Amino acid sequence: MATASGGDKGTAAAAAPSPQLESFLAIGLDQRTAENALANRKVTANLTAVIAEAGVTGCDKSVGNLLYTVATKYPANALVHRPDLINYILSEKIKNSAQLDAALSFLSTLGPDSLDRVKFEEACGVGVVVSFEEIQSTVTDVLNENMEAIVEQRYRINVGSLCGQVRKKHPWGDAKSVKEEIEKKLVEILGPKTEADNAKPMKKKKEKPTKVEEVKTVAAPPSEEELNPYSIFPQPEENFKVHTEIFFSDGNIWRAHNTKSILEKHLKVTGGKVMTRFPPEPNGYLHIGHAKAMFIDFGLAKERNGHCYLRFDDTNPEAEKKEYIDHIQEIVTWMGWEPYKVTYTSDYFQDLYELAICLIKKGLAYVDHQTPEEIKEYREKKMNSPWRDRPIEESLKLFEDMRHGLIAEGKATLRMKQDMQNDNKNMADLIAYRIKFTPHPHAGDKWFIYPSYDYAHCLVDSLENITHSLCTLEFDIRRPSYYWLLVALDQYQPCVWEYSRLNISNNVMSKRKLNRLVTDKWVDGWDDPRLLTLAGLRRRGVSSTAINSFIRGMGITRSDNSLIRVERLEYHIREELNRVASRVLVVLHPLKVVITNLDYGTIINLDAKMWPNAPDDDASAHYKVPFSRTLYIEQSDFRLKDSKDFYGLAPGKSVMLRHAFPIKCTEVVCGDNPDSIVEIRAEYDPSKATKPKGVLHWVAEPSPGVEPLKVEVRLFEKLFLSENPAELEDWLGDLNPQSKEVVKGAYAVPSLANAVLGDKFQFERLGYFAVDSDSTPEGLVFNRTVTLKDSYGKAGPK
After folding, report:
1. CB 326 within 8 Å of CB 300
2. Glutamyl/glutaminyl-tRNA synthetase class Ib anti-codon binding domain location, by residue (predicted)?
3. How far apart are CA 676 and CA 638, in angstroms?
C-alpha cells in the first residue's frame, strides 16, 4: 500500500499498477477485465503462463482477447498442446472466437494424445477465408427468408437469431462484420426508427382463464439423469484428464493427471471395470447419510457391472471397536449391498510405511517435533517448522525410531513437505504419521506409528485401483492435498467426485453429536427409533427399500448442503408401507362402550380386509374381528357436546364402526366428576340402514368378560424442536421433551397376537407400526413408524 510522505496526508499518490496488471493491460485487455483476472488466483496463474508461453510483452487487442480466452477456457487435459494453439493465434491462423471455440473443443476431445495438424486445422477453419462479399450475399438471403417476420416485428426482430442463421452457412466468417451488415440492411428495409419502434412494448394484461373441461397433460419425459443417476460419472478409460490444479504460493502449479502408461497399467489390472469403495470409520453406528454414500458407491459399481470394496478406515486404534465393525458389515447387507471384498486400511500399513520412506527420500516429508499447539500457531502464521529443512538421512533415522517405539507419544510426527504459505490450510504440511502406543483392533501390536486419514486415504484408493473416489462436498478443499501426495509418489490417481452431504431437519447427523446422545443417555442406544441411524430407522420399522427410494429421489447432486425436510423421508416410508403393511384395529386410549341391544355372550365374527383392495372372495386377505356386547373406542372419539366438524360419537348421534355396524349413543355413564366418562351405552343397527358420516376404529372383548389383547405402543415425534439443531450452541437444550410417548394399555384385535419381529401394520386411523425388539411372549411392543398424515405428499415428491 502506498503512503503519503509530507504535505497533506489525505492526498497520497495513486499506487502504481502491479507488474502482472501491466502485462494484462499490455495485451489489450480493458482495465476492468484485467483487474477481474487479477482477483482470481487461478485466472492470474493461467494468464501469466499463457503470456509467458506466447513470449509477448504487448499485442493487438484482438489477439489479446483470444489469449485471455485460452487462459480461462483451455481444457486442462490437453495442456501439452497449448503452446501450439498460442502459435496459431499469434500467426493469425486462428483469428476469431468461432475458430478458437472449435479449436478448444477439438483439443478437449484429443487430450494429451498426439496432434494431427491436418484434422485440427480442418476442424477450426484454418486457411478458410470468408470474403465480405460472401457475407453480404448470405445476409441478404437470410433476411429474405425472414422478411415476413421482419416486416411484422420491425426493429424488435431477434438480431442474434439472424446472426446465427448466417453463421450456420459461414462458421468462420467474422461475427462483427455479420452483425454490422445485418443492422445496415435492416435500416435499408425498414427505414429510420419511428416513435413506435422506440416505445417500450406494452405488457398484455393477464386475462382470467375461462373454465374449461380439465385436460390431462402429458408429463415431460424424465431426463437421462433421472432415469439413471449414475450417468454423470465418467468411464475408467477417460481418467487421463487433469483432476485438479495444485497452486503453490511461489506461483508453481502442479496439474494432477494420469500419464498414459499409468492409466494403461491400471486398466490392465482392473480389466477396465469401475472400482469404487465405501470407506466408513468403525467408530460408531452408520446413519442415513452413510446410506446415501452406499447408494452412490455400491450403486455406481453395480450399474456399471463393476466392484465396490467395503473398506474400514481404521487408522485410529483408540476409537475403533469390533462392535462397530460387526454392525457396519451387517447393516451394509441389510441395505441391499454386497461388497466385492472387505478390506481395512490397516491391511496396507506396510505399503504405506514404505511409501512414507520414499517420500522422505524425495525430500517431501520430514520428522517434526512441534506440539499440536505450535503446529496450529505456525499454520496460522504461515511459518515453516524449525525442523522442516532437516537432512533427509536424519528424518529417515528418526522415522525408523518412531516405527520401533523409541520416541515417546507426542514427541514426533512425520509431516508432508507441502506448502506452509498456501492459502489452503489443507496444504500446510499435513501430518502423515503420529506415534500411538495403542494395540490395533485389526493389526495387533505390531505398530507404534499410525498413518493419518490425509496420508492413508488417497494412497489406499490408489493401491486398490479405485476408479471413482466419491465423497461429500466438505472434502472438496482437500483435493489439492489428495492429489499432491499421489503426484509426489508417482501413483495412479482415481477420479475424485464430491456430492452434497445429506442433512435432514430436526435431527443431528454428526457422529460426535450422535455419540454424545448415546453416551450421555439422552436416547436409548444407537438403535433408538428417534435417531436417523440406520439401526434406529430399522427398529422404527423403516425398510432399506424406502431409504434407498428416498435417496434416489433426491439424486446425486453437488449443489449445496441444503436441509432436507424430514417429511420428505416420511413420504417415501409411507408410500412403501401403504403397499406392504396389513391393516388391523388397535385402540390406544380405550373408552368402554356397551351395546345394549346385543345379547350378553353373543359374539359376531366379522371379516375385515387386510388391504383396501383385497378381493372379497380371498380368505387369505381377511382377518377375523369379534364384535361383542362390550367394545372399546378411542377416548378422543367421544364428546359430550357435538359440533359440525366432529365426526365422532356424541349423545344421540350415530357413527359407523369400521368393518362392522352403525351404533347410536343412548346413554353416558359418568364417574364422580361429570367430565369423567366411565362408560358409553349404545345400540347397534344390524341392518346397517343408518348411514352416518363418521367411521371409528374399535376393539371388542373376544369373549364375555375377557379383556382384549393388551399391547404396548410407543409413539415418536421429532427428536429436536428446531429444524437445524446442529447450528445451535446449546443443541442439547433443543431436544423435544415429548419426542417419545409410551402407551402401556392399548387394546388390539386377537389376530395381532401372532405378530413377530419384522412385521409391519397399519393401525387404522392411527398410523403405521412395527413390532419392536423389546417384545416378549408375555407382551408385544409396537413402534409407530410414521403417521397417516401426509402433508409432503400432497404436493408430490420433489
Report:
1. no
2. 581-685
3. 12
| Active-site annotation holds for 714 | no
pLDDT in tens, 52-80: 888 888 888 889 889 999 988 888 777 78
Catalytic residue among 53, 122, 183, 281: 281
Are residues 429 and 335 part of one domain? no
How many domains does the chain contain in total? 6
This prediction's pTM: 0.75
Q: How confident is the model at residue 226 (pLDDT cuts 50, 70, 90)?
A: low
Which stretches of 152-267 are assigned E, i.e. beta strand? 244-247, 253-256
**pLDDT, tens digit, 9 for 90 and up, residues 656-693:** 999 999 999 999 999 888 778 999 999 999 999 989 99
Catalytic residue among 167, 501, 718, 765: 501
Contact (CB, 8 A) for 513 and 726: yes
| 181, 135 contact by CB (below 8 A) | yes
Measured CA to CA, the distance from residue 231 to residue 240 in angstroms comes to: 19
**What distance in Å separates the CA atoms of residue 470 and residue 141, rounded to the nearest whole number?**
53
265 part of the active site? no
Looking at residue 268, which CATH number applies to its domain? Answer: 3.40.50.620
* Residue 346 burial by Cβ neighbours in a 10 Å radius (0-12, 13-18, 19+): buried
Note whether 74 and 140 are same-domain residues: no
599 lies in the same domain as 699: yes
Quote the mean pLDDT of the chain.
89
Examine residue 162 and state whether it is found in any structural domain, yes or no: yes
Does 357 lie in the same domain as 339? no
- Helix intervals (H) in 369-467: 372-380, 392-403, 453-463
The band of 285, judged by pLDDT with boundaries at 50, 70 and 90, is very high
Euclidean distance between CA atoms 160 and 428, whole angstroms: 50
Q: Rounded to whole angstroms, how far apart are CA atoms 64 and 27?
A: 5
Identity of the residue numbered 325? I
Q: In this structure, are residues 298 and 308 in contact, taking their beta carbons and an 8 Å threshold?
A: yes
Catalytic entry in 417, 511, 540, 653:
511
Cβ within 8 Å of residue 148, ≥6 positions away? none
Nearest-angstrom CA–CA distance, 684 and 276: 65
Check if the beta carbon of residue 325 is closer than 8 Å to that of residue 311: no
In a domain, 625, yes or no: yes
pLDDT for the residue numbered 6? 38
Task: Compute and round to an integer the Cα radius of gyration of the chain.
Answer: 37
- SS3 assignment for 169-200: HCCCCCHHHHHHHHHHHHHHHHCCCCHHHHCC
Q: Answer with the one of 88, 105, 124 that is the final residue of a domain.
A: 124
Q: Which of 664, 698, 686 is closest to 766 using CA atoms?
A: 698
User: Where do we find the cell 459461414?
Assistant: 170
Known catalytic residue: 318? no
Q: Which residues contact 260 (CB under 8 A, 6 or more apart)?
A: 112, 240
Backbone phi, psi, residue 624, to 5°: -90, 135
Cell numbers for 316, please give them.
485410529
Task: Flag whether 200 is in a domain.
Answer: no
- Report whether 527 contacts 311 (CB < 8 A): no
The residue range of the domain holding 521 is 511-580+712-748+753-787
β-sheet bridge partners, residue 636: none
Q: Residue 426, Cβ neighbours under 10 Å: how many? A: 17
